[in-house]
């Protein structure tokens, strides 16, 4: 019960923040007399039905998984509090890992009727405003241990890749310089030949 009350309190606190979404809720609340918490619940139910039966569900989920986190990330960057920076940086790490996994699994799961509903619920869990949300859980249990285990190998490959890229850039620069020099010499030689011909005449 305390955990459920804590979640409800955080949802209520979120719904009472000052932003475009809550202003819209406030306007509808004043016009209808319905509590904004119930209005929010109705929006969630409508969204769930739309993701099951609606058109362009994939685009809607992608939009939801990107727009609010991007907005919250900008606010986190501009604030002096470092906890929200860590929260949203963790979300983007998990979001990137999820997109890589989804790239390979989408072929098999994309046709499943409830796929986008579950995806939306998953992303909602990842961005939820409590400490045991999906981002923290997945990062702590899976991503961080995997990265730390292979950190030295990854850094080694990155250094080799950076060295190769630097070498290729230097070679390309040298070839471009040589080509430009040859073109200048050719143009100078070409302009000098007519003058020598005139002197002979």
UniProtKB/TrEMBL annotation:
Pfam families: TB2_DP1_HVA22. It comes from Clytia hemisphaerica. It is a multi-pass membrane protein. This is Receptor expression-enhancing protein. One of its GO terms (cellular component) is membrane. Belongs to the DP1 family. Keywords: Membrane, Transmembrane, Transmembrane helix. The chain crosses the membrane at residues 37-68.
